[in-house]
Amino acid sequence: MSPYSKGVEILSIGTELLLGNITNTNAQWISEQLSQLGLNHFRQSTVGDNCDRIIKVIQEISKRSNLLITTGGLGPTPDDLTTEAIAKSFNVTLFERPHLWDEIKQKLSNSNLKDDSSSLRKQCFFPKNAQIINNPRGTAPGMIWEPIKGFTILTFPGVPSEMKTMWEETACDFIKTKFSDSYSFFSNTLKFAGIGESSVAEKINDLFNLKNPTVAPYANLGEVKLRITARAKNELEAKNIIKPIKEKLKKEFSKFIFGEDNDTLPSVLINKLDERKETIVFAESCTGGLLSSSITSISGSSQVFLGSIVSYSNALKNSLLNISEKKLEKYGAVSKEVCEAMAINVKEKLGADWSIAISGIAGPKGGSQDKPVGLVYISISGPNNHITNIKKKFNSTRNRIEIQTLSVNVCLNSFRLILLSDRK
Amino acid sequence: MSPYSKGVEILSIGTELLLGNITNTNAQWISEQLSQLGLNHFRQSTVGDNCDRIIKVIQEISKRSNLLITTGGLGPTPDDLTTEAIAKSFNVTLFERPHLWDEIKQKLSNSNLKDDSSSLRKQCFFPKNAQIINNPRGTAPGMIWEPIKGFTILTFPGVPSEMKTMWEETACDFIKTKFSDSYSFFSNTLKFAGIGESSVAEKINDLFNLKNPTVAPYANLGEVKLRITARAKNELEAKNIIKPIKEKLKKEFSKFIFGEDNDTLPSVLINKLDERKETIVFAESCTGGLLSSSITSISGSSQVFLGSIVSYSNALKNSLLNISEKKLEKYGAVSKEVCEAMAINVKEKLGADWSIAISGIAGPKGGSQDKPVGLVYISISGPNNHITNIKKKFNSTRNRIEIQTLSVNVCLNSFRLILLSDRK
Q: Is residue A115 pLDDT above 60, yes or no?
């Protein structure tokens, strides 16, 4: 038996990957999905937009694995070669599916794309017995095709949002039914804010050696996650395996845990405010709209978020937020005093229960000895007019966007902790 | 000749990659380095921490390429198997290098690492005639080894910072001397807005068959790019190869091209306004701060951007932007009439030369027969009080964040076109 026995492989197709123009996030996402389905995923390959090389690698994979997932090369341009190369790998001809061409024309007429669509026609050609994977977010469909007995190929476009939707709506169920054994992996992720990855890891070092469930830490900018994964026959069994570990973690970290799975700090806050029937507004300076857009990116935010004033210039801090020129001159725009006044005035002016104001130096220019790049003031004002003032100094190695993102994170997490201690 | 002829491959080793726990940023970074060195990089593979599978893939690669870069699997734990597997691939024994063990002990005593160092000893074993790549940032050295004539392997740890330092300090020079001919690749990217990828591609189909320079299209949400890549002995020669193609493209697409290389729509607009010594403000409804933050993410935006009003609720459209309740009731917040009034009023109130207002339905809720999800109004008002009104209907399959992102893109690109036709 080959050392691969039978398993799943991922093949990423695109010269831009070999040139290092883009990072292969698709392979990571699909790997994660395959893990959750409990499939044996042994190997990944990447090749460029070259028909001979694509054929060679597909023929190799067909000899050692029973399922191949490809991404990339399904589009309308001449270097989109995937379907053609797969067909050639098994000496098969492509046939046009007229209904797909109708669908593409329909999609184009529904959108603003004033595209001369003739090149899109090649996206309608598939092997005779291939099943189509609809692409609700784009024009290039994928396929599920078993060219030889015991070897199935699923194709996806390289655009991550299209690939993910097609996976979730069509491919996932197919793979689950045909390739998963009776065991699957179930995960439950706890999300942390206000604590670093190494602080989390140090406290629970023993948990990382567990076999079922496993516990693994991940970190993004300003967010730490612990994923608890159980291998089980069904979801109920998995939940029972996960439960004691989850309870242990919740006890250990209590308020550092802000949510689970798909929760985000904005979504958690919107839900909390919605329950409390309270509203919020912002006065943003250094984050320049990022705090507002983090909230308004969530559906349902209009229930609790009324609006905000982005007062980037000092003149607007004066005219829109009534910060006196004297105060601006005496303390500077980046100061506890100005930030506090911004929070008080925006709440009053916009008529909300809560307000958050933020002023700081996002850099890379504009820093000084006294007020270096990375210095940020945050003020939060609530229904009882109690004010919380926060001063942060982010590491000066952080770039502008990181400082803005981390500032928004501190705003949201500080507000979460205030809501927690201010039970209605 | 095999379709790979002789070239370079990257092999990433680590079960965490197959589980989808981490994204393979190393492969992207190394690919970029190889491109810059002008090497033929044909293929990438990823396998887990499994000795048999590592051996199999290394033996395959040794038959089709002449240089292999590996990352991962050099550490002290039992699942770090790379050096051992490479040696086994060519039936060679590993020998300890005593001076490396001295170096590791020295590094440990210098650091805070309270590691039981006995497991680190395996990091000192290498094939007899391998050259060591020092690791200034960690304890695991790599190697440069030619196990069979015409096939060389370079090994690196998986930790990106260690790998990059070792590449820059040792490996890069070695590869340049031994594998690079005197040619390198130089790229120049043209960036498009307001036109789809397939429309761009169809007009210049002939260019995609060029050999030097090559022309390749890429697309993100709302942005299309064409990269022109020349293979040349130096930058000047490359520029001369690229120039005629670039001029042809600029003539063909003229105003659809908004910039080059690191330009973004926000950065281009900030520069344009800065040159004109004009300022801008926004009134945002459906984009909820995203338009403002797209501008303020760029350093230097405070020169031209004064601030904005995010009027998410109708009450704030009335109180902050003086949109009469009558108008809001008659036309609705998502209408040409309200959007136009938002643009006029925000410009006057905030005192800028230009204003952009946007109102729409980002979904997924809030749509109706008359005003479906994806409907967006944009109004742009300039120094001469001329108003441009734009109505867009994005495809309803778009999700909330895509509609917001595309709306911002249309705002910025429409404004760019207005500035182009309004030469000062």
A: no
Q: Is the pLDDT of residue A37 over 60?
A: yes
Let me know: does B44 contact B25? Beta carbons within 8 Å.
Answer: no
Whether A45 sits inside 8 A of B44 (CB atoms) is yes
Report whether pLDDT(B114) > 50.
no
Residue at a domain's end among B260, B290, B317: B260
Could you list the residue range(s) of the whole structural domain that residue B239 is in? Answer: 184-260
For residue A337, is it within any domain? yes
Query: Is there a contact between A296 and B395 if contact means CB atoms under 8 Å apart?
Result: no
Task: Tell which of A12, A13, A31, A159 to mutate to test the B interface (max B CBs under 10 Å).
Answer: A31
CA-CA distance, B220 to B199, in Å (whole number)? 15
Indicate if the pLDDT at residue B276 is higher than 80.
Answer: yes
Answer yes or no: is A2 within a domain: no
Same domain? For B101 and B58 the reply is: yes
* pLDDT per position as a tens digit, B219-230: 777 789 998 989
Do B372 and B350 fall into the same domain? yes
Last residue of a domain, one of B149, B179, B209: B179
Q: Which residue of B has its CA nearest to A32?
A: B20
User: Do A252 and A104 belong together in one domain?
Assistant: no
DSSP class of B363: -
pTM more than 0.90? no
The stretches of B309-395 forming alpha helices (DSSP H) are: 314-319, 325-331, 336-350
Burial class (CB in 10 A: 0-12, 13-18, 19+), A63: exposed
Distance from CA of B193 to the nearest CA of A (A): 12
DSSP state of B302: G
Strand-pair partners of A184: A232
Q: Is A122 in the same domain as A81?
A: yes
- Token reading at A16: 């831009």
The rounded distance, in Å, linking the Cα atoms of B49 and B29 is 22
Six token digits for residue B224: 């299309």
Whether residue A3 is contained in a domain is answered as no
Chain A: residue whose CA lies nearest to B304? A313
| Same-domain pairing of A200 and A160 | no
Same domain for B92 and B117? yes
> Could you tell me the sign of the dihedral formed by the alpha carbons of B3, B9, B10, B13, in that order?
positive
Mutate to test the interface with A, among B44, B310, B334 (most CBs of A within 10 A): B310
CA distance B199 to chain A (A): 5
Is A390 found in the same domain as A371?
yes
The verdict on a CB contact (< 8 Å) between A297 and B404 is yes
Q: How many domains does chain B have?
A: 3
CATH code of the domain covering residue B200: 3.30.70.2860
Query: Is the separation of the CB atoms in B339 and B284 below 8 Å?
Result: no
Residues 6+ apart with CB under 8 A from B350: A316, A319, A320, B281, B306, B307, B308, B309
pLDDT at A292 over 60: yes
A287 with A140, same domain? Answer: no
Chain B contact probe: residue of A77, A284, A361 with most B CBs at under 10 A:
A77
